[in-house]
Amino acid sequence: MSVVIPGQASAVTEPEHSSATVPAPFGRRAFARLFDIVVVAVVAVPVLALTVRDGRGDAVPFPLVVIVLYAVLPAVWEAHMVARRGATPGKQLSGLVVVRVADGGRPSLLSAVARSAVAWSVPATAVLVLGGPLVALAIVGVYGPAAVPGLRRDLPDLVSGTRVVFAGDLVDHAPDEGPGGPG
């Protein structure tokens, strides 16, 4: 099945995927997530340092800053990247892509939003509400299922009906261009 991606040139098609594609291994997924966390931190840490004051003046409340910088903005960024490209920078670097379980296509914007909301909001909320060792437990609860052989899908995948696979497992099907090449 060759489908033209809206907003792209007609020679670019959405890859055809098999729902039987093997999920990516946990280690590669973990590297991709850590890379994305570093990308977020490069932006968020300086902003956090600028917004949190020493208790004097009209500083923005710390929990609000944390929620916006580590839950809302990263979730919006990731949802955009997954819906548009099928991958975040970390996943692209790792050679991974997010696909729908049902048919292997690119996730819808709604699915990408649900996926990224769980991926970023649960850990950020755990930091604010639970603190300490319970944060690690929350993070294991969110991402741990991706390490389970046979499942290899984390909580964001389960909520959104997606899975992470190797981009190399996807087959691109370009339309027939004929003897004259691209028109």
Structure commentary:
The N terminus and C terminus are likely disordered. Strand 1 and strand 2 form a beta hairpin. Helix 2 packs antiparallel against helix 4. The strands form two sheets. This protein has a two-stranded antiparallel ribbon with strand order 1-2. A two-stranded antiparallel ribbon has the order 3-4. The protein is 51% helix and 8% strand. The protein has six helices and four strands. The two termini are 21 Å apart. By secondary structure, the protein is mainly alpha-helical. It has one domain.
H-E order:
EEHHHEHHHE
Kindly name the structural category: mainly alpha
Number of contiguous helices:
6
Unreliable residue runs? 1-20, 172-183
Radius of gyration: 19 Å
End-to-end distance, in Å? 21 Å
Main sheet overview: 2 strands, antiparallel
Q: What is the count of structural domains?
A: 1
Task: Give a short overview.
The chain is built from six helices and four strands. By secondary structure, it is mainly α. Helix 1 packs across helix 2 (62-85) and helix 2 runs antiparallel to helix 4 (109-129).
Question: Which terms would index this structure?
Answer:
single chain, about 180 residues, mainly alpha, two-stranded antiparallel ribbon, 6 helices, 4 strands, about 50% helix, disordered C terminus
Can you lay out the helices and strands and say which pair or pack?
Blueprint: E1 3-4, E2 13-14, H1 26-51, H2 62-85, H3 89-94, E3 96-100, H4 109-129, H5 133-143, H6 155-160, E4 162-166
Antiparallel strand pairs: 1-2, 3-4
Helix pairs in contact: 1-2, 2-4, 4-5
